[in-house]
Specification:
480 residues, alpha/beta, TIM Barrel, eight-stranded parallel beta barrel, 12% strand, binds 6-O-phosphono-beta-D-galactopyranose
């Protein structure tokens, strides 16, 4: 049988997000973003959303790993690994410090010109997320974030400024990072960082989330339409968190429960890829009596702003069983799913994230079958505690095992199942601040950064064993 290989232009890369690694939170005219007022958390300790920036609180995203001043050194390391692309985001509040200004902040635009030029100098393609949880704090405080339809216009204006400025440097774009993770309304940091919204006493959290989500879907569709006018060669994607939900058994009740639960993963990409609201959500609005405001013309906007590809993050799978509440006894986080149980067939990371490489092949098949457009794995990684030896080496063998098994799974989906996959950018190519816990301790990188949870350390960079391993994977286009 012919030896199948990965497409020669497959985009092997790495993924990051401005707020988790740039630092320089108030440099170059940047305004505070919704993330800049979130204190550090820890494993099992939620991050707090504060009213402003108190001096006595520690805000891990303020300096992060100081890419803002070290971008040349870090990009040289990415080049040494042989990355074909680097996924990161443009900090919205670097470009519009308050979000509602008439003119953008030139120093912010210049910073990303410098970063993209440095990447392109090394032949590394920028893959850019417009909003990765970095809405200007002023839009959240003054307008209620995406509660307000005005914020749709502010986002579209931000998107158009970026598309115009970087139209000859960036081809691959995504509108909103993990636009669907706010479906888990039990964790307030998702709705806050996605949409700049905090649910008030007496409000129905899901109703508030769906209204903000509708405005975001409009903003995404309008941005896509404008982007294609500015440069028809742009490839503009949606970006969702995709955590497959398995039925615990062949009991039809479990199977249907998993099918229903998957709707919280599929709703947003359904609208962004197909261009219309699925019936199961309209039925939910009716059944629950949600009063979601649609304006005339919204349907037309959604239909005209469908995406070119679907980017998604994959970390783990979850499992549901009818008739039980969260068992939560297992070491596997349930992502806020009711009826979730541990899967007896798979192990979990130290942070309770299930390790399920076959789930990635399964996810690729389910998403490709559903949408029949190119896919892009823009996050996949293994958060773990790393130990640095006396000689500065870091033997992160668990991370290599995790990534190797997930790469084998995606290769099977491409070579055996025929999935059209654009690329693979493992999450946190360099150690960064964890989003859900605000920790440095939960490391993802193939490059170690000397910084701890309290912000101590030299910020020196060290190459982990996975740095050399991934370099070989890329050189061999995945064949080794
Ligand atoms: C996803 C986010 C990333 C990243 C990742 C890992 O939700 O898109 O920003 O943080 O999760 O999560 P964590 O950093 O909490 O381990």
């Amino acid at each position: 049988m012919k030896k199948m290989t990965m497409p020669k232009d497959f985009l092997w890369g790495g993924a990051l997000a401005a707020h988790q690694f740039e630092g320089g939170w108030d440099k170059g005219g940047k305004g505070p973003s919704v993330v800049d007022v979130m204190t550090a958390g820890a494993h099992g300790v939620p991050r707090k959303i504060t009213d402003s920036v108190e001096e006595n609180e520690f805000y891990p995203n303020h300096e992060a790993i100081d890419f803002y001043h070290r971008y040349k050194e870090d990009i040289a390391l990415f080049n040494e690994m042989g990355l074909k692309c680097l996924r990161t985001s443009i900090g919205w509040s670097r470009i519009f410090p308050k979000g509602d200004e008439a003119e953008p902040n030139e120093a912010g635009l210049k910073f990303y010109d410098d970063v993209f030029d440095e990447l392109l100098r090394h032949g590394i393609e920028p893959v850019i997320t417009l909003s990765h949880f970095e809405m200007p704090l002023h839009l959240a405080r003054e307008y209620g974030g995406f509660r307000s339809r005005q914020v749709v216009d502010f986002f579209v204006k931000f998107a158009v400024v970026c598309f115009e400025r970087y139209k000859n440097k960036v081809t691959y774009w995504m509108t909103f990072n993990e636009i669907n993770n706010k479906m888990d309304v039990n964790n307030p940091i998702f709705l806050w960082t996605n949409s700049g919204v905090i649910v008030k006493a007496g409000e129905n959290a899901k109703e508030v989330m769906y209204q903000a989500g509708h405005h975001e879907l409009l903003a995404s569709a309008l941005a896509v339409a404008k982007g294609k006018e500015i440069n028809p060669d742009f490839q503009i994607g949606a970006m969702v968190s995709h955590v497959p939900i398995y039925p615990y058994s062949s009991n039809p009740e479990d199977v249907m429960l998993a099918e229903e639960a998957m709707r919280q993963r599929y709703f947003f990409p359904d609208v962004q890829v197909r261009g219309y609201y699925p019936s199961y959500v309209l039925k939910e609005f009716e059944r629950e009596g949600y009063n979601i405001t649609f304006a005339d013309g919204d349907e037309d906007i959604l239909r005209k702003g469908t995406v070119d590809y679907l980017g998604f993050s994959y970390y783990m799978s979850t499992t549901v069983k009818s008739g039980v509440e969260n068992d939560n006894t297992g070491d596997i986080v349930n992502g806020g799913l009711p009826n979730s149980v541990s899967n007896p067939y798979i192990k979990a990371s130290d942070w309770g994230w299930a390790i399920d490489p076959t789930g990635l092949r399964y996810a690729l098949n389910r998403l490709y079958d559903r949408y029949q457009i190119p896919l892009f794995i823009v996050e996949n990684g293994f958060g773990a505690v790393d130990t640095i030896e006396e000689d500065g080496s870091i033997h992160d063998l668990q991370r290599i095992d995790y990534l190797r098994s997930h790469i084998k799974a995606l290769q099977k989906a491409v070579k055996y199942d025929g999935v059209d996959l654009i690329g693979y950018t493992p999450w946190g190519i360099i150690d960064i601040v964890s989003f859900t816990t605000g920790e440095m301790k939960k490391r993802y990188g193939m490059i170690y950064v000397d910084r701890d949870n309290e912000g101590n350390g030299s910020l020196q960079r060290y190459k982990k064993d996975s740095f050399y391993w991934y370099k070989k994977v890329i050189e061999a286009n995945g064949e080794e």
